[in-house]
Write a structure and sequence with these properties.
By secondary structure, this protein is mainly beta. It is 0% helix and 48% strand. It has strands at 8-16, 22-26, 52-59, 62-69, 75-85, 87-89, 95-99, 103-112, 119-129, 141-143, 151-156, 174-177, 183-185, 190-196, 202-203, 213-218, 224-235, 242-243, 248-252, 256-257, 262-272, 278-282, 286-289, 294-296, 303-305.
C-alpha cells in the first residue's frame, strides 16, 4: 500500500479594519483521509511541513492574500470565501492558482465594500503538490530503480493480480521485491521535492498506511516519481537537490503498510477535480535496459535485471 493524494485543508476567519497590519499564517501539512468510495484511497502522512506560507498583508488600506512557496515543487491552491460581511475583492472567488517553486503569488486583494465600516470573512483553501496541466512525456524512459547488475521480481504490476494498488495514484505502480538495504536509484532525472525517512515499522497493517519512508522526484514534464517503503534513516538526498538517472537515493526497506521488503515505484501527475481539489493519478511508463535501450512495460512475475554498463 502506498501513498495517495495529500490534500491540505485550512479554514481561517479574518476581521479587517483600519487597525489591521499583518496576519501571517504558516501552513502545516494536514493530510485528509479520503474514503475509498471516492476512488482515492488512503493518504500517507508527512513528518515535516511543506515550506508554503500564506499571509494577509496590508497594502494601501487593502488586504492582499499572498502565497509564498519556498519549496522545490509547484503548489496548486484552491480557495473560497464564506460568510463575507462588507467584503469585496478584485478577483472572482473561488480561486484556483498555481504557485511555482521558490516563488510567491498575490492570489487576491480583499477590501471593505463600504470603506466606512469594518469587514470580515472566512476563507477556506486546499493545496496539493504538482501542476494539474502537466502532461507525461510519452517518450520518457525510466531505468530500473535499483543498482546496476542486480535482478529482482515484480511482485505487483498493472495487468496482474492486484492486492493493494486499488487507488488512482497506484494504478500503474510496480512493487519490486528486494532485500532491505538494496541501493535504490533515480529512474529518471529530476528534482527531489519530498523526503521522509523517520519511520521504523513495517507490516501488512492498514494502521501503518501513513508511515512509509519515501522520496518523491519532480520530472521536467511536471510528473512525479514515488519511491516508497525505504529504510529508516537511509535516504541520501534532500529536497531541492537535482539528480540524474542512476543517482543513489537511499536504501530499500519494509516501512509502512507492507507485506514484505520491497520497493513501490510509481509515476503520478496532479489533476484538478471539479471542486478545486488536486488528485494524484498514476500514469503508465516504460522501463528500459541495455545500451542501446530496450524498452518494456513491467508485468507481474517478471524478473527485472538492471543492465546499463557499456
Amino acid at each position: 500500500m502506498t501513498n495517495a493524494l495529500a490534500i491540505h485543508c485550512h479554514t481561517i476567519r479574518f476581521l479587517g479594519d483600519s487597525r489591521s497590519r499583518l496576519v501571517t499564517l504558516v501552513l502545516r501539512l494536514l493530510l485528509v483521509t479520503l474514503v475509498a468510495s471516492q476512488g482515492i484511497g488512503q493518504t500517507l502522512a508527512a513528518a515535516n511541513d511543506y515550506p508554503l506560507q500564506v499571509a494577509i498583508e496590508k497594502t494601501e488600506g487593502r488586504d492582499q492574500f499572498v502565497a509564498y512557496n519556498r519549496g522545490a515543487a509547484p503548489v496548486f491552491i484552491s480557495a473560497s470565501l464564506s460568510e463575507p460581511i462588507n467584503t469585496a475583492s478584485d478577483r472572482r472567488w473561488p480561486l484556483q492558482v498555481l504557485v511555482p517553486p521558490k516563488q510567491s503569488r498575490v492570489l487576491a486583494t480583499l477590501f471593505a465594500a463600504d470603506p466606512r465600516s469594518s469587514y470580515r470573512f472566512e476563507y477556506h483553501y486546499v493545496f496539493s503538490i504538482g501542476d494539474p496541466s502537466a502532461v507525461h512525456d510519452p517518450h520518457a524512459l525510466y531505468r530500473l530503480p535499483f543498482a546496476d547488475g542486480l535482478a529482482f521480481p515484480a511482485a505487483q504490476a498493472h495487468g496482474g493480480k492486484i492486492t493493494t494498488h486499488t487507488a488512482l495514484n497506484s494504478t500503474y505502480a510496480v512493487d519490486i521485491t528486494m532485500p532491505i538495504g538494496t541501493p535504490v536509484v533515480a529512474a529518471r532525472p529530476g528534482t527531489v521535492i519530498e523526503v521522509e525517512q523517520s519511520y521504523r515499522e513495517g507490516r501488512f497493517d492498514p494502521s501503518l498506511a501513513e508511515k512509509a519512508n519515501r522520496v518523491v522526484i519532480l520530472h521536467a514534464d511536471g510528473t512525479m516519481a514515488e519511491y516508497v517503503h525505504l529504510s529508516f534513516g537511509r535516504v541520501f538526498v534532500t529536497p531541492g537537490q537535482t539528480v540524474s538517472a542512476g543517482h543513489r537515493l537511499g536504501e530499500s526497506g519494509n516501512t509502512g503498510y507492507s507485506s514484505e521488503p520491497h520497493l513501490h515505484f510509481a509515476v503520478v501527475r496532479n489533476s484538478a477535480l471539479p471542486d478545486g481539489r488536486g488528485q494524484h493519478i498514476s500514469v503508465p511508463f516504460l522501463f528500459y535496459v541495455g545500451n542501446p535501450p530496450e524498452t518494456f512495460v513491467p508485468h507481474q512475475g517478471q524478473r527485472l535485471t538492471a543492465h546499463y554498463l557499456r
